[in-house]
Amino acid sequence: MSLVSRGFGRRRSGTTDDRLPPGQYDTGSRFPVLSAGPTPHTPPARWDFSVRGEVETPRTWTWEEFRALPREAISVDIHCVTKWSKFDTRWEGVAVDTLLADVGTRTTHVLAFCDGGYTTNHRLDDVTGGRAWVVDTYDGEPLAPEHGGPARLLVPHLYFWKSAKWVRGLMLTRTNEPGFWETFGYHDRGDPWLEQRYSGD
Amino acid sequence: MADSRPASARVRRLVFDVDGWPGHLPGQHVDVRLTAEDGYTAERSYSIASPPEDPQLHLLVEDLDGGEVSPYLTEDMRPGDVLELRGPIGGYFVWSAAADAGTPAEQRRPVQLVAGGAGVSPFLAMLDHSRRAGDPTPVRLLYSARSADDVLGEELLGPQTTVTLTRGAPAGWTGRTGRIDADLLRREAFAPAERPRVFVCGPTVFVEAVAGTLVDLGHDPRSIRLERFGGSTDPQ
């Protein structure tokens, strides 16, 4: 449907249009914060990260052990379902490929679980093959709690609710199990380039 | 659009007739899409400020400097103009009397609403809905506005609502002043022991501060639901 809004015209710069998925705008230097509930504050001493579920060898890393894993620097554009996009965000962390390397699994889906009870689901092929990380720094600094610190998932090719804040582990599952927003009407996969915002898109 | 009128010093109330509107739950939002002659589109989300009982859809839109959609809605759009709405959207930041109907009255957990500025929009839908349903569940609103001229939905405010003004009060103001802090929450909100379901809506900084204070006061984090707006104008 293309209903022209009388007198409406572009008010923002169009220089980055080719990097903006449909319906998104460039939020510039701002970094909006969104969460469904209060920000948890888990100190590193009480933090760990687990891979469990449909795996041959479940794994858990303490904060120190996690920090000692091979690390990668990532610079990516991110896209929030609430319409803002942010370009060239810089993160560091551990590839999900690294976390899954030794657990042994033949399953197809994964549910990320978090402090505060948040969950989000992924197809395994959306978080492997160098497309997802567990990150603990943003722009060279430790990840702030309101942005998901100590660590969050980063799956930049999907809407940003899929990059779960305060992530504590990955549950590999035999079937697709909708996560938090996915059970409240948001799209199961959330590809911004296909504008998969809501269930049925 | 059926009507556009000032709702406060900085906010307009836009009223829409929506063909085939399927109804909504108080707290849900709509996505508004504008399309320019050249095909350029812009989309933003707005909370629904009217209760499901109202056949028209009300949005309270703040004219944000530098915005792209809000200035069009508040300044350029005229009654009779048409736009694209998508919704209702959202199943989490909602409360309705119907959802509580299956719970005996004495077991219903009260509902505490905490608003900052135009974040009161979804709560006006909830308050109006609650009133029309005969107030089946105890509902309270604690609402922070900049000045008396910024207070929205005055017709819905009453004994169950508390307004606090953060940037000065007019002569004769007998209500609260100052930001919503631990002291005000302790005095004017349901206590943690009453196990309220808490909804907080407002600018990001407001929501983050209030949510943290609620947890510090002993409210169950799992019972606190947050909604933020102004993401594009709120520097982090």
TrEMBL record, chain A:
Stored InterPro entries: OxRdtase_Mopterin-bd_dom, OxRdtase_Mopterin-bd_sf
Region (Disordered): 1-45
Gene3D superfamilies with a match to the protein in the record: Oxidoreductase, molybdopterin-binding domain (3.90.420.10)
Residues covered by the Oxidoreductase molybdopterin-binding domain: 37-181
A Pfam family recorded for this sequence: Oxidored_molyb
Domain of life: Bacteria
Protein name: Oxidoreductase molybdopterin binding domain-containing protein
The species this protein was found in: Geodermatophilus saharensis
